[in-house]
């Protein structure tokens, strides 16, 4: 199958997936009740009037996890092509290919150990 | 004819998936009911068969409320962002040697990349609601999903090493003799734990923990907008069970040469076993604590997944194991 056709099919999948919610919500518009009131439009907070907004500063640990995620996700991007072509590279370069990725993985594992020791991974 | 099939195929698959979701919800409630010594839904229709249909109709005619403090555009957009990737990933899934919509070379990477977009939808939904519970649920959900995505992605590298391709068809064909669940048993265990977590299911259902966060990121959603979050979750069960079948259980390959059943039937059998396993886990396990949840991903699953990659490369060097690795 040519690559353009493959992505055309993915495009059709995308279109179908976007159209379903739009169609369902439009159909629902003719069926559902609509009696808006001031009370209904207030933010839910266990039955009492909400105090303040919710768009506030957030705990830093979420950002630390996000940073770790970026590091290891990028690592995964490098791992996939390496793994996919491992057999070819193994016969051409020899065991050096294992060593090179071992070095790369080693640095990241060191980083993980560092984060571990710095107690970044704790959730308090 | 072929062009017609090209456009109708995705629509037919969508109908199949919607049918699956309708009865997967009922089956889940029945199975969990039985495991916990209850009967489960049995009032609507014979044997409760129309229960989910009734639920969907109820959701369809519910009033659609949007809180006045919410960011309206993002609030409306987020269920769609959460749902779309769940269905789009199915485009590359090989259901049998004939039934596959598109056969792209980077199928596995495509699945992993697209499926992580749902996290953004959930985060937007939690933030746009301008509700404290929703924001907490959305943030927790994002933190959990990105933490478990790493071991999920790492756990399949062993398979890629063995097959030498990211194409899902090649992966299935490489399992004609041995399913990867046996040589890649460590990868399988990491994969299945991470996938339960990616699906936000018990014991990892903290983002929606009813007893602590009311409902998590979708607390302000009602009617069909809420339904699309739930739909995305169940479509992911379909997609993730299919992926587990393809990666570890041999896809459409018949076990022990039992080829008298067509490949698609074997696929459905294996797929159903995985889905049942997910229900079983949900009925059995209690929810884990949030600190244990995050530490488990980074301190246990990730090192184990990395060790599995190194172990696989080393086992590839053992002469009498070349058949398996």
Automatic annotation (TrEMBL), chain A:
It is a multi-pass membrane protein. It is an enzyme of class 7 (translocase). Keywords: Cell membrane, Membrane, NAD, Quinone, Translocase, Transmembrane, Transmembrane helix, Transport. It catalyses: a quinone + NADH + 5 H(+)(in) = a quinol + NAD(+) + 4 H(+)(out). It holds the Pfam family Oxidored_q4. It comes from the Bacteria. PANTHER family: NADH-UBIQUINONE OXIDOREDUCTASE CHAIN 3. HAMAP family: NDH1_NuoA (MF_01394). Belongs to the complex I subunit 3 family. NDH-1 is composed of 14 different subunits. Subunits NuoA, H, J, K, L, M, N constitute the membrane sector of the complex. This is NADH-quinone oxidoreductase subunit A. It comes from Shimazuella alba. The lineage of its organism: Bacteria, Bacillati, Bacillota, Bacilli, Bacillales. The gene is ndhC.
UniProtKB/TrEMBL annotation, chain B:
InterPro entries: NADH_UbQ_OxRdtase_su1/FPO (IPR001694), NADH_UbQ_OxRdtase_su1_CS (IPR018086). One of its GO terms (biological process) is aerobic respiration. It is an enzyme of class 7 (translocase). Keywords: Cell membrane, Membrane, NAD, Oxidoreductase, Quinone, Translocase, Transmembrane, Transmembrane helix, Ubiquinone. Coiled coil: none annotated. It is found in: Cell membrane; Membrane. One of its GO terms (cellular component) is plasma membrane. It catalyses: a quinone + NADH + 5 H(+)(in) = a quinol + NAD(+) + 4 H(+)(out). The chain crosses the membrane at residues 6-26, 77-96, 108-128, 148-166, 178-196, 234-254, 260-281, 293-315. It is a multi-pass membrane protein. Its EC number is 7.1.1.-. GO terms for molecular function: NADH dehydrogenase activity; oxidoreductase activity, acting on NAD(P)H, quinone or similar compound as acceptor; quinone binding. HAMAP family: NDH1_NuoH (MF_01350). NDH-1 shuttles electrons from NADH, via FMN and iron-sulfur (Fe-S) centers, to quinones in the respiratory chain. The immediate electron acceptor for the enzyme in this species is believed to be ubiquinone. Couples the redox reaction to proton translocation (for every two electrons transferred, four hydrogen ions are translocated across the cytoplasmic membrane), and thus conserves the redox energy in a proton gradient. This subunit may bind ubiquinone. Belongs to the complex I subunit 1 family. NDH-1 is composed of 14 different subunits. Subunits NuoA, H, J, K, L, M, N constitute the membrane sector of the complex. This is NADH-quinone oxidoreductase subunit H. It comes from Shimazuella alba. The lineage of its organism: Bacteria, Bacillati, Bacillota, Bacilli, Bacillales. The gene is nuoH.
């Amino acid at each position: 199958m040519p690559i353009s056709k493959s992505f055309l099919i993915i495009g059709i999948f995308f279109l179908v997936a976007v159209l379903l919610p739009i169609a369902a919500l439009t159909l629902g518009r003719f069926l559902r009740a609509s009696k808006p009131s001031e009370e209904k439009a207030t933010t839910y907070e266990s039955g009492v009037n909400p105090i303040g907004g919710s768009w506030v500063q957030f705990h830093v640990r979420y950002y630390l996890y996000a940073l770790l995620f970026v590091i290891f996700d990028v690592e995964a991007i490098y791992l996939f092509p390496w793994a996919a072509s491992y057999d070819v590279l193994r016969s051409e370069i020899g065991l050096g290919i294992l060593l090179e990725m071992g070095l790369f993985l080693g640095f990241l594992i060191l980083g993980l150990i560092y984060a571990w020791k710095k107690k970044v991974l704790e959730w308090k | 004819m072929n062009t017609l099939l090209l456009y109708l195929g995705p629509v037919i698959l969508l109908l199949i998936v919607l049918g699956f979701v309708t009865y997967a919800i009922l089956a889940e409630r029945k199975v969990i009911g039985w495991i916990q010594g209850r009967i489960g839904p049995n009032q609507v229709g014979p044997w409760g068969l129309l229960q989910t249909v009734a639920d969907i109709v109820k959701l369809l005619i519910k009033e659609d409320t949007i809180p006045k403090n919410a960011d309206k555009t993002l609030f409306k957009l987020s269920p769609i962002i959460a749902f779309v990737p769940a269905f789009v990933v199915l485009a590359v899934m090989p259901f049998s040697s004939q039934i596959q919509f598109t056969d792209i070379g980077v199928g596995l990477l495509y699945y992993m990349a697209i499926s992580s977009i749902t996290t953004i939808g959930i985060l937007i939904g939690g933030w746009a609601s301008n509700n404290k519970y929703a924001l907490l649920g959305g943030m927790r959900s994002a933190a959990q999903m990105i933490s478990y995505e790493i071991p999920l992605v790492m756990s399949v590298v062993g398979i890629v090493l063995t097959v030498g391709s990211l194409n899902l068809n090649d992966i299935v064909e490489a399992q004609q003799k041995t399913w990867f669940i046996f040589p890649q048993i460590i990868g399988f265990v990491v994969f299945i734990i991470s996938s339960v977590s990616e699906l936000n299911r018990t014991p990892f259902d903290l983002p929606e923990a009813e007893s602590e966060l009311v409902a998590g990121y979708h607390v302000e959603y009602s009617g069909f907008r809420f339904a699309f979050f739930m739909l995305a979750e169940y479509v992911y069960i379909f997609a993730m069970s299919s992926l587990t079948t393809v990666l570890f259980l041999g896809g459409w390959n018949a076990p022990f040469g039992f080829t008298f059943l067509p490949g698609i039937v074997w696929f459905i059998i294996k797929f159903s076993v995985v889905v049942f396993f997910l229900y079983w886990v949900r009925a059995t396990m209690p929810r884990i604590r949030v600190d244990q949840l995050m530490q488990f991903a980074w301190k246990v699953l990730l090192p184990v997944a990395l060790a599995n990659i190194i172990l696989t490369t080393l086992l590839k060097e053992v002469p009498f194991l070349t058949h398996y690795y």
